[in-house]
Amino acid sequence: MDIVRQTKKSFFQRFRWPIIIIILLPLLYVLSKQVASRDYSVDKSKLIIAKVQQGDFTIKVRGPGVLTPKDIRWIASDVAGRAERILVKPGAVVKAGDLLFELTNPILKRSLEESLWELEAQEAETKAAFVRLDSQLLDQTAKVFNAKLDFETVAMRLEAETELFSNDVQVVSKMDHEKTKLQNKQTKQRWHIEQQRETKMIESVAAQKNALNARLNKMRKTLERIHEQVSNLQVKASMDSVVQAVAIEAGQQVIIGSNLAKLAKQNELIAELQIPELAIRDVALNQEVTIDTRNNQIKGKVIRIAPAVNNSAVQVDVALISPLPNDARPDLSVDGEILVNKLENTLFVRRPSFAQSNRNASLFKVTNAGSTALRTSVIFGRGSVHKIQVLKGLSLGDQIIISQNDELEKFDSIALN
Prior knowledge:
Elements: H1 11-14, H2 16-37, E1 40-42, E2 49-51, E3 53-69, E4 72-76, E5 81-86, E6 93-94, E7 99-104, H3 106-166, H4 174-231, E8 234-236, E9 241-246, E10 253-254, E11 259-264, E12 269-276, E13 288-292, E14 297-305, E15 313-320, E16 333-350, E17 360-367, E18 372-383, E19 387-392, E20 399-401, E21 413-416
Parallel strand pairs: 1-21
Antiparallel strand pairs: 2-20, 3-12, 3-16, 4-11, 5-7, 5-10, 6-9, 7-8, 9-11, 12-15, 13-14, 13-16, 14-15, 16-19, 17-18, 18-19, 18-21
């Protein structure tokens, strides 16, 4: 019987693949480094190249925005009614007092008529009450006068009796003389009481007249208010302005407080800019601003900075200083540049699209008379809309590639054709 003999494998045969892999890995790494460091040719006309300059450098912050009226007023309805006529449309130029809408309210007009009748009746009742009060006061005045006459009559008799008694003329008995004295005291006291009653009655009549006048004035105020409500059915412009929007249609029922029209002054506009939240730290009040309407430029200054961030932006209000051009109108889209700082005698370059303020960046610097570009590390300083400050890594006159090209990212040097 044959015995199968197993062939003995050598060490290399058993571990040849691991050995091959270990040998090839360094070779592949070296080869990849050589490929990565190899020059890559690119057409120079397809690149954007900027030159490092030195001088005064203005830092600006840019943001989109819109023009909006400085003074906006919504005309609201002070009364309920139905829109009978609409006399204006958006864009109409109106003056203060011009009629905008006509509303109708039959119930309100009927209330006006009833209030007029009620006021006439109350005025007549008040007049009658005044006559009655004056008559009562005259009656009391007459009582005071009569009491005074009684007192003076008794006083005269007492004086005469006293003189006779002093001359020992016994014409009047002593008892009658004492009775006269008592009557003198009584009439004097009654006269004083009637005077006090007259004083109190004068105060009472004045108070009652004041109450009657107050009720009458209340009715007059009610009538005046109804008159005003009826007058408010004629809705008029509150200022010289341009109608921005009309919020109702003819025949529509209107409730109290409903917005009817939006008015704005065409020649008094401000700009509302949306500044990115990362750039708002440099913005301050009274900084100079240039507003671009695409056709014209308007000078302005910052008058308000919103305290909160909304959709990654902060609203900045700009007052327009220079005269408004003809194309300026509410809701016009604009761009604004805010001058936040000015650096003197510093290095700067046109801002690459990928460069950020106060950050390091890796970019290509043109060398060898423009035939080669080498990757260089640059430290940028403060940036503006179109320019950025150079702190380290570049010198005056150096040229860099500022266009972004993903194909160049894997190379350290490129050849420029």
